[in-house]
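Notes to self after the call with IL:
- keep both proteins in one doc
- input above output, always
- annotate only the second one for now

Protein 1:
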Amino acid sequence: LIPRSYLRFGQFFMNIGRLNRFHQHDWPFTRAPKVHRTFFDDEGIYDTGLEYSYILPTTHTINLNLGLTSGYRYGHSHTKGSKPKVPTHYGRLTSFFPFSSTNGLETGLNYLGRTDAQNNQLQIIGLDVTAKWREARLISTLIQSEFWYKTSIDDFDKTAKEVGFYIFNNFSTGQQSSFGYRFDMYNDLTK
């Protein structure tokens, strides 16, 4: 309906970072990195809301994604939650750089903010990078990384700052097998 646009409404995993956009069963590893578990939960964050994506009219592929969700819950939850003071809002600006017709690099700048019902404020900024090299339909090499910085302020005006990242390298060893390793780093800067 709107050229160069994508709109979705309902309950979904928010389009933020690399991992959070996919269900855990589609990740290239079995357990979420420490920074992801700490900032977003084991399975990622999803909620009910509206998300709009627009491919900017530039010579280079740049995609702007904006979202607003109810904010009643954050992380994995089976309860309705409480009405937040400021609903969850987020944005992601991505760009794709092709190396060839089958290989490329995607980068993304991310922001997420919210204030829950107890007046706890949360702001997260991040950068994600994903590079893939393909041989026919097989991904021969995958390099994936995310860097996140989180600031939270509780209802007593106590500020907490945390930072973390991971880098994951994966190499194909055959049609149905691969070998990968991941390095995780997390630090609570307020301690």
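Protein 2 (the one to annotate):
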Amino acid sequence: MTAGFDVGAERPTHPTIAQLREVTQPPSVRSRAAAEHWVAHAYLRDISPYLTRILLRAGFSANGVTWLMIISAAAAAVVTAWPTLLAAILVVILVQLQMLLDCCDGEVARWRQTSSPVGVYLDRVGHYVAECGIAVALGVRATGQFQISGVWISAGLLLGLLVALNKVENDLVHVARHYAGLPQMPDAENVRAPRGGLLRTGRRLARMIPFHRVFHSVELSILVLIAAVVDLFADGAATKLLLAALVIAACLTLVGHLVAVLASSRLR
């Protein structure tokens, strides 16, 4: 069974990669505007069915895979705090694993037909742990050691708060729509685009210089690695500069995101 596989039929115990792609990667998944990170589009969705098949044969549930994703996210945050180049390389690897497992948990759920609110909730927890955790740990990394207080510790905590608030702005759209009795928001660009001409222009400019996207775990991990390489010659100055720049960018993103949500069709 390859093309034309009946997605509603009983699923085979040992599916082929072609069957997994047909059932777990429908166009509705591959074409999502916001839920799919660029690494998923670029290469992770090409790799994920192979790991998904292993996880299915090992008996993992979708939520079990999500817990693996959360563990990878937490490990990436912890390792970020170690001020070494090796740790920065490991952060990038752990984040890539987190994102790969993030693809796989949905694929396992679609194959087993076990999608649930618990899975969605745990998935969000994983992303909060990764992105907010890396932000906070960056303060420890900039300090050079773990301590209770300090300028860079405070900066890391502030960045973690700003990243969390930025993510909350996204999640509150779904909460507001639910309480208002509106249907689920389509994951499409035309819904997210501001209605005003000036704001649309501003959004296009922001997409040309997408600093608002650096707060995802993938981009954060890459920036941590770049700063770690520079720090080999700059004695930690690059990580401190990165943290300061991220705090400023997070403040701008938080305000801009709020304006973008209110000016779009997301709450209508």
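Annotation: The mean pLDDT is 86. DSSP finds eleven helices and no strands in the chain.
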